[in-house]
Amino acid sequence: MSGVRAQQKQKTRQALIEAAFNQLSAEHSFSNLSLREVAREAGIAPTSFYRHFKDMNELGLTMVDEAGLTLRQLMRQARRRIASGGSVIITSVETFMEFIDTSSNQFRLLLRERSGTSKAFRAAVAREIKHFILELAHYLETETPCDKHHAYMQAEAMVTLVFNAGAEALDQDAQQRGELTERLIWQLRYIARGANHYGGQ
Amino acid sequence: MSGVRAQQKQKTRQALIEAAFNQLSAEHSFSNLSLREVAREAGIAPTSFYRHFKDMNELGLTMVDEAGLTLRQLMRQARRRIASGGSVIITSVETFMEFIDTSSNQFRLLLRERSGTSKAFRAAVAREIKHFILELAHYLETETPCDKHHAYMQAEAMVTLVFNAGAEALDQDAQQRGELTERLIWQLRYIARGANHYGGQ
DNA sequence: AATTTCAGCGTACAGTTGTACGCTAAAATA
DNA sequence: TATTTTAGCGTACAACTGTACGCTGAAATT
């Protein structure tokens, strides 16, 4: 197992994934990517692409998984910061904005494919976001005075706002982002306040 | 003015717009549309397309305007319903869900191009949504005990949640939509409650 | 009635796309 | 050592794309 051969294969597979991520940008979405261009950037012949993925769709789903993984890792790190005494809301927002800044193409993929033309893509992104919501809901349920159902709705609303703010931030400069983040934090406070009122135990 | 000629031109122009909207669907986004296919469905030769639009981009921006118009008209109608004694939150949500149901392709356009690959498109959609937010903010400021800044943030949060719920609803059956709508209404209540607490006068 | 304007057409072309097919050389296996 | 497996390549092709160019006939203008 794991001979020279399999190792090299894994390497070019990763090269394909990275080439595809590289070609995502503000002006280029996944559905505009061409198999040939991706193969070219990865340094292999177009037809060799098929040794790794059935088609572009399969590549895309792999990329969604990878982006979801990045996001989850980042949030795990956020939870550590919170545990050592940070504010939940502020730390989470900061962490998310960091994700957008350092992995903007991964975020763009999730953002766009959430409402894209492939049902499989939409489902995959929805799954990643649901992870996120469930984790937050669990936290809210155990750490704040809020019953289970309301904790879920609260988490859902919060994640939606954060995600959308991230989308807006993509087009903004530092100052606008600052204002956006400030508004976002107020909005999250509204939700926390309201949820604790209606769902308080 | 308005001779037979100009009238016919206007007619095929509209045919192009409608053909393009027709070709939008869950599986087909604007950027996948081809000039040739649109022209074909509108019943004109590919090259005649240029008599009406400089390129597909210009067509798309026109479509965004049209979708925005539809949405604004619908919301004006909602305001009448509210004036004659309906609940603000519930009436607005119902009206929006109606928009998604009866003009799903127009909604899909706004939804997707909001995070699409053309900055001009994103700006156009953002403008339509901002209209929406400002109107709601004005209502909240005058009709509820909430200062201007908080009214704006409240409106922004609410529109974000409604818009996103609409996006989710596109893939759902009647029952799921019912549950979604119920959650959405709770979430809007959270925001109203929180905003009035922090921004109450 | 003579002239101008212009929506729509057909032809043509160069560029790009996905992918079928068969080959090669090197790694893996027997 | 002999055989099998397979990642990657090159060639080839049909389908489709946007759009340049020049023509036509009818509406509009003079």
UniProtKB/TrEMBL annotation, chains A, B:
An MF annotation (GO) of this entry: DNA binding
InterPro entries linked: DesT_TetR_C, DNA-bd_HTH_TetR-type_CS, Homeodomain-like_sf, HTH_TetR, HTH_transcr_repressor_FabR
Listed name of the protein: DNA-binding transcriptional regulator FabR
Keyword Hydrolase attached: no
Swiss-Prot/TrEMBL keywords: DNA-binding, Transcription, Transcription regulation
PROSITE patterns linked: HTH_TETR_1, HTH_TETR_2
Origin: domain of life: Bacteria
